[in-house]
Amino acid sequence: MKQQNSYRVHFIFSVDKRARINSWSKELENMFGRSSSEVQGIPYHEVIPKIHKGNTDAIMQAIKNGKPITLKAYPVTSFCGKSKATVRVIPRKVKKGKVEGADILISVHPSCAMWKRFKQSQRLVDIGKISATFAHGVRNPLNAIKGAVVYLREKYASEKKLIEFTKIIEDEISRLDNFIAQFLSASVSEGNLSEIDINTILKKIEVLTSLQAKSRKIETNYEYGYTHHVNINSFQLEHAILNIINNAMEAMPLGGQLSAKTRSDIRSGTEFAVVEISDTGSGMTMGKQNDMVVTSNAKGKGLGLFITREVLRSCGGHLEIESKRGLGTTVRLCVPTYKNG
Question: Which carries the bigger pLDDT value, residue 136 or residue 27?
């Protein structure tokens, strides 16, 4: 029982002596969609179901008697669907023992269905906040980078390889700036869909990441098979693939081998263009929480994998991951071909 309690979720609020809400925890704000300021001063039973002890209001009884009340295995239906909770009502006293209100703690085991849905929604909200903050904050550094690239291009105009890279960087800066503008007003599934060759995208990524791989002593092998075109936002697909390749390189800090292959594959009557990326890194422990990919990678929050998966889902594709500790990782990005659209 002690182990089970350690995984409980606590919903906390406080009331005055007339059982009007004084404070309202963040968990309750998220669960009911009402902020603490919105519910302040409202009788608690107008916001959540009244908490009973027998035929009486448990909160008012605790305030009246000045004694704590604990209700075990209390049935709740609005916090986490149909579940059981432990409810503690603790009178809040001032000088001379006078009761001015009560603090209420509702402990619910998080295995209930609504809590799982809540956690999934909260994860998406958190990702949205992080992404929006990043999108706003990245624009000034982009302008600085663009200025530096222009300077390098003009100063070393005779260096063909350098000019090739500066052209790629300038193009990517412009595309990223446009993407940020679209991102702040649209969802991942909206805007700028086009018929593209997935091999063209991967060849560009091969050039873009070549210096990074060399500096990390990573041997790369790219194989380009035949695939029909796909209908997707090219910028989003490019960075979905880049997320996986960057993860693969991060998994090989002491060097290793990275391979990327493209091919066509038919599954359940649908043809997919497949990008398969493998590394010889340490591998990772895979799991799922609330229909979301979770990894044991301590360096990040798994946002790259999540974003990649959402990009693929937006066009009817999917992400496949095979990984074991010490045996490396293989990731397949599957995008339905244009002829199926």
Answer: 27
Which of 132, 163, 185 is the last residue in one of the domains?
Answer: 185
Closest by Cα among 337, 202, 321 to 260? 202
For 151-182, the pLDDT digits (tens) are 888 888 888 888 888 888 888 888 777 777 66
Where does the pLDDT of residue 149 fall: very low under 50, low under 70, confident under 90, or very high at 90 and above? Answer: confident
Query: Cα–chain-centroid distance for residue 20?
Result: 36
Mean pLDDT of the chain: 80
Contacts of residue 231, defined as CB under 8 A and 6 or more positions apart, other chains included, come to 193, 194, 195, 196, 315, 338, 341
Asked whether residue 274 falls in the same domain as residue 165, the answer is no
| Nearest CA among 115, 124, 172, 116 for reference residue 146 | 172
Q: Clarify whether residues 261 and 340 are in a common domain.
A: yes
Structural domain including 167 reads 114-185
How far apart are alpha carbons 121 and 311 in whole angstroms?
Answer: 18
The neighbouring-strand residues paired with 88 are 70, 105
Orientation of helix 234-250 relative to helix 198-208, angle to 10°: 40
Q: Give the integer Cα–Cα distance in Å for 341 and 335.
A: 11
Residue 250 and residue 337 share a domain: yes
Looking at residue 201, the DSSP 8-state letter turns out to be H
By the 8 A CB rule, do 47 and 70 touch? no
- Shared domain for 336 and 204, answered yes or no, is yes
Q: Identify which of 260, 235, 239, 258 has the alpha carbon closest to the alpha carbon of residue 308.
A: 239
Number of domains in the chain: 3
CA distance 275 to 302: 20
Is the pLDDT at 110 greater than 70, yes or no?
Answer: no
Calpha distance 323→325 (Å, rounded): 7
Structure tokens at 116: 């799982």
| Res. 131 pLDDT band, cuts 50 70 90 | low
List CB contacts of 7: < 8 A, sequence separation 6 or more.
109, 110
Give residue-wise pLDDT tens across range 246-288.
Answer: 889 989 988 999 999 999 999 888 899 999 999 999 887 655 4
Task: Let me know whether 210 and 257 are in one domain.
Answer: yes
